[in-house]
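hi! just following up on the protien thing from before. the input was this:
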Amino acid sequence: MRFPTLGRCGMGFEPPVPGRWTKLHDITPVCRDFALVIVGAVLGHEVPSRRGRGPPVSPCQGRRTLTALLLSAHGVARRYGRRVALRPTTFALHPGDGVALIGPNGAGKSTLLSILAGALVPTEGRVTAASPDRIGWVPQRPAQYARLSARENLELFARLADVPAPVEAAERLLGLVELTEDGRPSAELSVGNQQRLNLAVALLGDPDVLLLDEPTAALDPRQRRRLWEIVSQVSDRGGAVVFATQNLEELARFANRVAVLLDGELVFDGTLDEFEHAPEADVFA
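and the predicted 3d structure came back as:
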């Protein structure tokens, strides 16, 4: 199955049909694509390499050979006309991985995460997943229906994903992320609370792989601690987490592996100890 793209509209959602729960075919294309991604998309799309041979592998890629594989990208790249956002990249996730994805602004971190999540189709290469319906994605920007409350958003996405007991699931996740439901539209929530709602939606599918794009940038210290308590549970139970960050303290505390992107190229992928002794450790110097 080929995965749909988000198109030019980004994350701008249209309001749902008033007075009833919106079915998948009623939703605008942008929201439908996001719903499939955020609660567990079918990621088994394949885009053949245009070079007629296997995708190139950089020297820092392909070093891990564990048999268990949760998610993998094979030579994925993304171009916009002549501009290269991500050069051919091979990347794999295994149980227990906590990967800090770092690099300066514009290095390709969000592009890679969007491709791994299935929200963005690569220009070349392919992404495969062991359990395509167990992928959670937390993008940088708010990704909810602006006119629905936090609870209504969670119930909507739960129903779209056929999550059992959607009302109870919404209640549980509101409590998990410590988000108070007061009936306000999500557009009126603070940026930090919108980000917590993003996380709650991503957790609806009980993901084995959780992808987070600078998830703590808008959170206060208490909210950050709570987010990492929740996120750590995914890798602790045998899942994998990838988080883009500019915070080196988060890297040191919550990652056991580091991937460095520079100018759209994966220049380092190794353990935290290897990173501390590598030239790439000066990426933010």
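Residues 1-33, 38-59, 61-66 have pLDDT under 50 and may be disordered.
The helical segments are 29-38, 109-117, 150-160, 166-176, 191-202, 221-236, 248-254, 272-276.
cheers
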